Structures are given as structure tokens and as C-alpha cells.
Amino acid sequence: MKGLVKYAVAFVLASSSVAFAAEAQPLAQNPLVETRLNAISENLRCLVCQNESLAGSRSDLAEDLRREVRHLIEAGKSDKEVIEFLVSRYGDYVLYDPPFKATTVLLWVGPFVLLVGGLIGLVVFLRRRSRQGLVDEDDALPLPAATTATSATASSSRVAGRWLVWLIILLMPLGGGLVYWKVGNLAALDPANVKPAPDPNVMVARLQAKLEANPDDPAGWQLLARAYMVMNRPDDAVKAFQRILPQIKQQPPLMADYAEALAAAGDLNGARTWINNALKQGSQDPKVLFMAGGLAFESANYKQAVQYWERVIKIVGPDSQEGKFVQESIAEAKARLK
Amino acid sequence: MKRFWWFLIPFLAFAVLVFFLARGLTKDPSYVPSPLVGKPAPTFNLPQLHDAKQTFAPEDLKGRVWLLNVWASWCVSCRAEHPVLVDFARTHPDVPLIGLDYKDQRSDALAWLKQHGNPYVLSAFDADGRVGIDYGVYGVPETYVIDQAGIIRYKHVGPVTSDVVQTLIDPLLKGLK
Questions:
Q1: Do A91 and B32 touch (CB under 8 A)?
Q2: Complex ipTM
């Protein structure tokens, strides 16, 4: 008996890492995958709300794309392969950092061409002006007093003009460098600074500390709890869930997560209470229904277990990974009915 | 006189700048050029909307020019587009119009087609939107023209209007035959 609940919990754990297809789960269970997902999607543009990155967007499509990226990461694809996957479907448009190629030459080279052109124009203009003195022959001032004054200052203004040119030539790149030093990211220029992926244990501990300092963050607690579940620390997961009980009370899928943690920690009665709660609210969440079936099975109510599990199949489809698993459970329950 | 020309340069530069900015204003900023045009249509094998036991794959239509229209019952623009598609199906019996029902509920989609008429030869049912991602769908409705060799020749984002059919799709179809 106990064995089957373990089995059920194992199913829920296994399936939650794949994430129910119908329910795009906003938070990943594996902090390591999540870190890479964030790093990649931070540099990709969301196609629906185009001023947001894929990481920051809450649009449906962005959630789907994050789910795809998560799958690819879990399948062991490199960052480059993941980005290639998206570019082949949506084009360079999704990249915040477009590649250098024929169609983007103007984008990359244009500013420098303009800068060099402007500098040349400036030099030509200033040299001509200093050579001619301050006055052009075409429209020399008609006042005779002014003409004598200009020729007297001509040589000094020529020297000043030349100095001005060199000063500008020197100051422009210097100014550019200064601006980059202030607002740019110098560290990014050094390949040695690309951080290795952090250790999940350290990350989870850091997240826990951050949440203790700033506990009003339900999404954070949820992430922490899921991380603990993946790390096979259900007692810690239960503790994390307990910090967001008000939120759990409003969301049946969260109730299922909590009940799963409780069951894994050995508190079957607690799990039952929460699942019944979720069912009372009319939840159609596959995880709620699966847990309900598992708990019914545990109390030897095989008929009811089969009913719940068949509803799960209807939602996730008989051919999905979860569906196949549930079918096995149904067969097991039916065998006991006989 | 020489000086006059020198002063003209900033004005010319300004005019060029205004030209490009003004052009930028008339373009649709939400338009994303698809890298898929000119490439083989991504393959898939999905259950059909009306009969989940039957499937549809793009290879089924190899050798024919056809249209793939991505739609959903929850999509408002699809309703605006719908009469145009019904009309298209009527006037182009030789060009199969295939629907891709994107991230929809089966019952909702069936009711929607019943209410507004069904222009599609059949609709493939893409419940989780995965095929949509393969096709680079980012806003429903979208329409693809696929040729005999299975190459995507044109992608239209947003509702197809009768104007689009006449000025873009019809000439393209004529050229493909």
C-alpha cells in the first residue's frame, strides 16, 4: 500500500519535470535549468510584446517558448543550439544581439562610417578655414577696418584652428571610451569572466536566505519549494509551502503541489485534506485529479481511483508520457478490483 | 556662392534623416520577416479537429499548391478574416485550404466552425501550440502558401483581406501553376 503512494508520488515528480502540456508552468523545478533558461531568454526578444525580453514577458507565446527552451536544455542542447532553434523559426529578429552578415552590415558599420566621415568633413572644413583666415574671399566683409583686423589675427587663428582639430580628434574617442566605461559592461569583454553554472545547493541556500530577508514573495517561495522537491528534501519543501498558505488556498494547482510535498514527507492525512479542498473548488487540474486517485487507491477505494485517473487521461491524452503512466496505474487498480 | 553649397549639406543630411524616419513611421513595427519563406514547410503529424483518430501531415499534399491557415476560436481577428476564407474556398476549389487550430479547445473550435461556416478541407488540431512554434507563429491568424515541392512561398501575418487575396495570393498561385 505504502508502496503505491510512493509510486504515485514518483509519477507526479517525474511528470512535473516534463510539465503538464496543457498547463504551462511558469516556474521550472530544476534551478539549474532555470538559470540557463534565464540567461538565454534574457538575450532574446519576445515576439508579442516586442520591447520585452523572452525572460520578462508574460505573454502566452513567451511562456510556450520558454517551455520549449526548457525542454531543449533538459535534452542536453547547448545554448548555441537553443538559440539556433529559435532563429530558424523566428529569424534574427529574436536576437537582441544581431549577427554580423550581409543584411546587417549597415547596422554594424554605419555608425563608424558616419563617425569617420564626420571627422574627415570636420578636418577638411577647419583646415580650409584656417588656411583662408576667418574670411572667405567670396563674401569678405565690406568694412575696410575689419579687413585689416582679420589679416592681423590670421596667423594666430590658423594655429588655434589646428589645435582645435587635434583636440576634437583626441577627445571624441576618449569621450566614447569614457561613456562606455561608465555605462557599458567592461567585465563582459573578458572571456574569463563568464561565470560557470552555480551549484544548485548553493543557489537554493541563497534563495532561502533572500526569501527569509524578504518573505513577501509568493513566487519565490514556490520556486524554493519546487527546488526542494527536486532535491528530494520534502520536509523543507513543506516548510517553504507553509509560508504561502494564503496563496495556496486560492490556487488548486498549488494545493496539488503542496499535497505532493506533504505526501512525500509522510503526512498522508494532510495531503488528503488539501486535495479534497481542491476538488471542492471544482479543480480540473490533472495533478489534483491524479493525487486524488492515488489517495483513493491508498484507502483501498479502487473504483474511485480509476474514476479520477480516467479523468486525468482525458486531460493529458492517452498517448502522452503522463497518460501512459496513468494507464498503468489504472490497470493496477482494476486488477485489485477483481 | 561656394559657401552656400557648404551650408546646404546639413539641410540635405536632415532631409535624408526625415525621409528615413518618415518611412519608419509607415511601416508596421510588429511585422517580423519570416526566415521560413523559401524553406521546406516543417513537417508534423497532428490529429484532425473533426476526427481525432485521423491525422494530417503536410506530406499528404505533396504535389499540390495549398494554403495553411492558423486559426483559433479564441482569436478575434480570425473572425474578421473568416468570410474572406469562406469566399476563398468557394472560388479556389483547386487549392486546398488546411486549417491549423492553434492552442484551442476541441469543443470550442467545432462550435466556432459550426456557427461561422467551415472553409477548411480539414483542420489539424495543435493543442499545445508546438507545431505553431515550428512554423514561427507569433500572432494568430497567419497564413502560409506552400507549393508542390512543399516549400513555403509566402507567409501572411494577421487577417487575410480580400485585397491581400487579389494582389498577393492570387498572382502567386497563378505563378505556381
A1: yes
A2: 0.81
